[in-house]
Amino acid sequence: MIKVILCDDHAMLRRGVRDTLAEATDIRVIGEADGYASLRELLRQQRPDVLLLDVDLPGRSGLEILAVLQQEEGPLRTLMVSMYPEDQYALRCLKAGAMGYLNKGGDPAALITAVRTVAQGRKYLPPEVAELLAKHLSAPESAQLHDSLSERELQTLCKIATGKKLAQIAQELMISPKTVSVYRARTLEKLGLSNNAELTVYAIRNQLV
């Protein structure tokens, strides 16, 4: 039996994932967490074969949590899930040590396949991610400016581009508006841009939103 722990801050999404996995007789969800604190508590009680970890969590993000778990918990087979397009986060997740990446909007059957694959100690790469990886390996010189952004800076860019104010972004990421302003300033500097309008245009042109 493959034991799975879910970590996602949206209860309805966790329920959808749980219901999908329930269709597989060899997979059992043994716990659910809505963020870093509850996940650590679960991991103190039991260890899963696979951790399904959302990228976009309030407070500590999925990638930040993944880094901490790798340092403190040792090897943990982690499948990252996200609503973001593969070209934004898939390679970042794999480089950070995830065993696979899956878009939440994908085929539910792929989730079962991904969990089984990761549980076997193999990486799960849907066709879209495999193609991205192939392009990245064959043409690393084609890196784009936003590849230099940190995860929080990229999140800030995407949220600004969808019209959200700094206060809204701060609330969603569970950080202070001042910290969001710092991320915005760093993003503008790294991309060579001047204001939110230019950030939005950049995000649209690069298909980040």
Describe the structure concisely.
The chain is α/β, with parallel strands linked by helices and 209 residues long. The chain has helices at 11-22, 36-45, 62-72, 86-95, 108-119, 127-138, 151-161, 166-173, 177-191, 196-205; strands spanning 2-7, 27-33, 50-54, 78-82, 100-103.
Describe the structure.
It is built from ten helices and five strands. The protein is α/β, with parallel strands linked by helices. The chain is globular. A five-stranded parallel beta sheet has the order 2-1-3-4-5, sandwiched between helices. The mean pLDDT is 86. The chain has helices at 11-22, 36-45, 62-72, 86-95, 108-119, 127-138, 151-161, 166-173, 177-191, 196-205; strands at 2-7, 27-33, 50-54, 78-82, 100-103. The protein folds into two domains: 2-138, Response regulator (Rossmann fold), CATH 3.40.50.2300; 145-205, Orthogonal Bundle (Arc Repressor Mutant, subunit A), CATH 1.10.10.10.
